[in-house]
Amino acid sequence: MRRKTTSTESAGGRSRRPLGRIVAAGAMAFALVTGGAAAALPATASAAASTHAGAGIIVTTADGQEAICTMNSVVERGGTYFGVTAGHCLNPAELGSPVVKISTRDGGLLADSADIQAGGVVRSGTANPFEPYAGLDDFGWFRLDESVTPDAGQVSSTAATGIPMLDDLLRGANQPLGEPVPVSQNLVGRIVCKDGTMSGRTCGPVLAVNSRTEEVTALIPAIGGDSGSPLHVSGRDGKRHIVGTLSNGTPVLFNTFDGTRQHLNRI
Would you say which domain of life the source belongs to (predicted)? Predict the structure, then answer.
């Protein structure tokens, strides 16, 4: 059973919703959870945009609704750059209408309808913190507009909890990114971090891993709007390495991440 609740954030006269999937005890619920985000400026034709792992994205649908998610990573294929996020952030069946535009938090264009059609969505499975071995695919991608300055080599985040002192504490400083790594059992017990546009950088231990279908369950705080956030782990090279994409969980407690690297060959 799924339900939607809407929190309104004024931005160019449209409602804006932090987008996230929340698991309630005994039932799956799809929720749009208030995150206290600051209002974004209206997009303009001349707005220059840049993006990177951990940056916020505004998803606009054909019916004029807007929702907030997080960029998982930036991927280059043959000189063309793509943005990666959670599949449910782009899935018309869950949004209620096709996505027609993706923007930065301050209104810069990241992708128009043609760019979105050049991407895709993979959605299946029900894995969550209470059923970590149920399997899950939650992966979406879109071509970045030619005007965008992409940064595939770093991860960072801001926070928008509505509490300035907490936002300063949660802000994720720029860190270099290496190649994504696969989901494996040796992650269990390790400290990993996620960078989300709403709750910033939060870290915690990996509780469970499904290495067959590549999901990670971790004790990491997250809130609505963090969907798509990169889950990353430290490497011996001194860089961070993305291992997963935030899909669903319980508010500010346990969260489930779909393995990122397994899907990258679809782009």
Answer: Bacteria
Arithmetic mean of pLDDT, 40-63: 78
Q: Indicate whether 196 and 257 sit together in one domain.
A: yes
Q: Residue 196 sits in a domain of what CATH number? A: 2.40.10.10
User: pLDDT-derived band of residue 116, with 50, 70 and 90 as boundaries?
Assistant: very high
249 in the Ramachandran plot: left (φ > 0), alpha (ψ -120 to 50) or beta?
A: left
- Full residue range of the structural domain in which residue 23 is found: 16-35+47-150
Distance, in Å, from the CA atom of 16 to the CA atom of 36, rounded to the nearest integer, reads 11
State the DSSP H helix or E strand holding residue 259, giving kind and residue range, or none if neither: strand 254-259
Same-domain pairing of 122 and 216: no
- Confidence at residue 35, expressed as pLDDT on a 0 to 100 scale: 28
Pairing of strands 99-104, 149-157: unpaired
Regarding whether 99 and 181 lie in a shared domain, the answer is: no
* The pLDDT of residue 28: 26
Q: How far apart are CA 185 and CA 63, in angstroms?
A: 43
Secondary structure of 139-169 as H, E, C letters: EEEEECCCCCEEEEEEEEECECCCCHHHHHH
Same domain, 31 and 138: yes
Q: How far apart are CA 71 and CA 48, in angstroms?
A: 17
Residue found under tokens 């430290």: 234
Q: Answer yes or no: is 168 within a domain.
A: yes
Q: Nearest Cα to 73, choosing from 139, 158, 137, 122? A: 139
Contact 111, 66 (CB under 8 A): no
Q: Would you say residue 20 has pLDDT above 90?
A: no
On whether residue 115 sits in a domain, the answer given is yes
Characterize the bridge pairing of strands 16-24 and 66-70.
parallel
